[in-house]
Amino acid sequence: MPFRISKESKKWFENIHGKKSNGIKIGFDIDFDILYYCFIAGISMRNKSDLAHSETNETVEYFPGRFKEKGKLLVALFLSAELNELGVDMKQRDLVNEEISKLVSPNTQSYLSDLGMREFNKYVYGGFNVLLDWFDDRPRSLETFLLNFKNELDKALNSS
Length: 160
Description:
Layout: E1 4-6, H1 7-12, E2 20-21, E3 24-25, H2 31-45, E4 56-58, H3 71-86, H4 93-103, H5 114-134, H6 142-159
Antiparallel strand pairs: 1-4, 2-3
């Protein structure tokens, strides 16, 4: 099962996705860049949302490029949020193992089971909603987006 992003989020990021100036990349290279920032916003704010399959685009079934090294960290953030949402006490080892085994699969490139991927993607969709709350308008430049993203994330995390 692949990672997915909302069609609306892809359109929202169109000014900083795949852009070049004089042959130099000045924006996101791949759709997974969009997915990453949506996921970080969603997981940080514990905001999940569900979308119909028709409202999303498939990306990849693995952590591509520079995200490959960070894949296990992203899965760990996801697992921590899910266990927290389920109210699982980390001292209950059997329950922790049972819940984690539902969400992960060592046989996939993403390390996630089908259920895990569906729930991971819900943070991506919910994260886009967070970005819509954080920003008055869609991003026009990568530099401005990154600066504003960090500022909004810091504000949100410091207030919780």
